[in-house]
Structures are given as C-alpha cells and as structure tokens.
Task: structure prediction
Amino acid sequence: MQPTSTICACATAPGGALGIIRVSGPDAIAITDLLFSAHNGRPLAQTPAGRVVYGVLHQAGDSNDVIDDVLVSLFRAPHSYTGDDTTEISCHGSPYIIQTILQALCSKGCRLAEPGEYTRRAFMAGKMDLTQAEAVASLIAARHAAAHRVALNQLRGAVTTEMHTLREQMLHLNTLLELELDFSDHEDLEFASRDDLRQLAQQACERIAHLASTFRIGQAIKRGVPVALIGETNAGKSTILNALVGEERAIVSDIHGTTRDTIECTAVIADITCRFIDTAGLRHTTDTIERIGQDRARQRAAQADLIVWVIDATAAYHAATLIPEISSLCHEGATLIAVINKTDLLTDAPTTDAPAQTPAQRPAEVSPQSASDAPTTTPDHLVATLSPHLPAGTPILAISAHSAEGIDHLREVLASHLPHPTDEAVIITEARHHDSLVHAHDALQRMLQALDAGLPADLVSEDLRDAIHHLSSVTGEITTDATLQRIFSGFCIGK
Ligand SMILES: Nc1nc2c(ncn2[C@@H]2O[C@H](COP(=O)(O)OP(=O)(O)OP(=O)(O)O)[C@@H](O)[C@H]2O)c(=O)[nH]1
Ligand SMILES: [Mg+2]
Result:
C-alpha cells in the first residue's frame, strides 16, 4: 500500500557538527524543490536519482532568507530505504537550523514522522521483513561487538532465512494434507506420507527448540546481564562498583550506610554488557529511609542473574550471619559469587572480629568460637571457613578492591559465569520471536501426538497450520496493527 503523506524528521542525534533531515513520501522531491536552490540551477525533479546536489535551502522558498548551505541526496521510488521518493538534506548540526528546516518543510506540506515510521514504511513496501526491521533498532542500539554482530546478522536476514526454510517445508506437507481432505471420499488415500510428516515435525521441533534456546544468550547480548552487589554496610560494594565501571559513580566513604538507593551502571565484560547494581548495605536500622533502601536492595538482588555478595574481610564472621538471607535471594538460575574484600587489612594475627550477634543467630559452624579458634586470619583461612556454609558450587574469592589485581580477578570470575556469545549463525534476541517459536514448537508437539494417535488429516493439518501461523508471525507475514505499533513505537524518530 502506497503512503499518501510525505514525512520529515531529523535522523541524526543532536549535538553533532552535521544534521541529516529525511523527507520521504510521494511529494518529497516536489516539496524539497520548493525550498532548495541547487548551485547547478537544476531542480531536483529534473535530477537523476542517486545524485548528491550542493545548494542553498531557503525559508519558505524566499531567496533572501537563506537557512543554510546544504547537500541534498536524491532517491527515487522504489530504490530508497522506504521504497518512496526520498531526499536527505545534510545541513549544519545546529538545533536552530534543523528546527527551521523542519518547520519550512511542514509549511510546504510535510508532516513530522512518528517514531520508526520510515522503517515501518520500508516494511510495508516489502523492503524488509519484521525481523529485519527489529534488527535496525538493535543495530542502532548496539554498544559492543557481540550486539553489533547479532543485529547485523539479523538485518542480513539470518532469522528470515531460518523461518522461511522451516515454513516452506511445512507448507508443502500441509498442501498434501489438504489434498487428502479434498479427496476425503477415498478413505485410504494418503498424499502425505505419515512417516515423512513425523520426520519433518521432529526435525522442525528440534531446530525450533534449539533456536529458542539461544534466547538466553540473545537477551544477555541485547539487554545485558543484571549483576547486583549486595552485603553489609561498609563492605566495599560501592568501591567495587566504581572499579568495575572505571568511574566514580557511587559515593564511597567509611561511614556505614553511605549508599541508600540503588545505583545502576554498565560495563562490558567478555563481550557482554553487565548491568551492575550497587545497593544499600544491610544492617539493623530503625531509619525508615534506610529500610526502604534495603528493601530495594533485596528486590534488585532477587531479580539479578548474578549476585555478588561483598564481605568485609575484617568482619567476615559477622557477615556470615547473612548466608541464609543472601542464599534465599538467589532465584533459580541465578549465580551467587562471594567476594571477601579488604584482604589488604588482614594480618596473620588472630581475628579481632567481635561477634555482634548471639550464637543462636549465626550458622552453627561459623560461630564466634570457630573464628577465635582460627590460628591466623588469612584470606585462605576465611575462604576455607566460609565455603562450606555457602550453597554448593558458590565461587568465593578474596580480593582487595583497592588493588587492580583484585578487580581483575573479580572480572575473570564474573566472565566465567556470564553467558558466552557463540558463533551460532542465528541467535534469538527478541521476546516476540521466542514466544512465537515456543508456540510453534507446542503446535508441532500436538501434531506429533495426533500422528501417533492415527488421527485424521484435518486434525493433523490444524496443528501444522498453527505452527506455520506462529512462524509466519515472526517475520511479519501474518501480523496485526497492534504488533506493528508496539514494535515501531520503540524506534527513534527519523528511523
Ligand atoms: N583497605 C581497604 N579499604 C577498602 C577496600 N575497599 C573499600 N574500602 C574502604 O571501605 C570503606 C567503605 O567502602 P564503600 O565502598 O563505601 O562500602 P559500601 O559497601 O558501599 O558501604 P555502604 O554504602 O555503607 O553500604 C571506604 O572507606 C573504602 O575506601 C579495600 O579493598 N581495602
Ligand atoms: Mg555504598
């Protein structure tokens, strides 16, 4: 369907030396001509496509009222991003110039584009399917190599090709099943071999299950992995956060309870964006605000994929009382990493960590007695004493956040517990794709059961058509206005 309106928007971020304004739609060239005087004297309407023309842009076409010297790139339908006639005006990046050009274009018949409207038009014109349109947004948002690689692959049609291959096989068999329905008078007529059908459904199920399984890494690559730093006050959580992200994002002080709210910032480790969340320290308090901060700390930790429990080495036996609470915050699939910090303050002398809790409140084995029985307090001794009380397999490391070595060690341990980007050709990054794949998988499972039960062709075909429907919705061959609205409203203006 051809769009009737001509839209305009600035496609570049504010603050740059140059701005690019995109004009697209049936009147794009005529409207630009009303404002533009090419130095070669030739109107754009008479200029071949694919040219970049130097000239002057005037306010409302008044030759005395120059807005800027510009370059106009010319694209003619259908050879443009949207498939419609398009001009791209490169001007100086001043917000005033950009605003004035947009106003001038609107005064001549353009309207401002909605978020994602150019890409939506490209999709409607058949220039790309829905997975490729989504990849455009991911590519713009890509912040590191893995995210860039996955988005580019998807833009080049990796998901499209997978879906088409699966869909084509299924459509072929469904055609045969439907032929059987047309000849339903001949009861024993089977155009589609049941063995072939079973084999296809099994193969497709395996492939779809595999694709769906890449969603975990896809999510990690696209959205990042939440990593919560939690522990008692003054343990060094904020110090560790600042060291991991390489800037002073959180206030550090020796006053207990310095961090009151959660602070989130990101850093890339092993090609995965980690979303580090510093939290309010846990301690007994009657301060209402501090308690709210601690509740937030628990909430954020409970949602995190990795929980870094920071323990002050000089108060480690006291911190051990938190083991049950910290363990309970780890949801299924989350990893707990125990970090004994401030090991630079340890001496080989017996610990001075005085018990602040009654023995009944402490895990029996990590009692004050065992602490004071300790011949020396060394990092190794603390690790050996705490390890048995942590959930099985919990990595435990002793560091000093003040030293780069300690932080590098923590980074390595984090990296080994992050999902690893693979060389997989197709990685599913969108929840929408994942949901459709799961539905398609379920439909194929039902189809296999129908085949096993020897059910008639119409019932088998129903499940097969259901699977085809879900695969088609991934690429947008079948879609709804609401789905398109949801996808494109998440885009930036000008894309
Ligand atoms: N000696 C030494 N001091 C450290 C180390 N890490 C942090 N500190 C100090 O410990 C104090 C507390 O550090 P923070 O990072 O503010 O601790 P926190 O866990 O965020 O504390 P709250 O925000 O109160 O929960 C500061 O004075 C830090 O400089 C370390 O490895 N060695
Ligand atoms: Mg803090």
Remarks:
- The first strand starts at residue 7 and ends at 10.
- Residues 233-239, 252-254, 256-259, 281, 341-342, 344-345, 400-402 surround guanosine-5'-triphosphate (ligand 1) (CB under 6 Å).
- The CA atoms of residues 82 and 122 lie 4 Å apart.
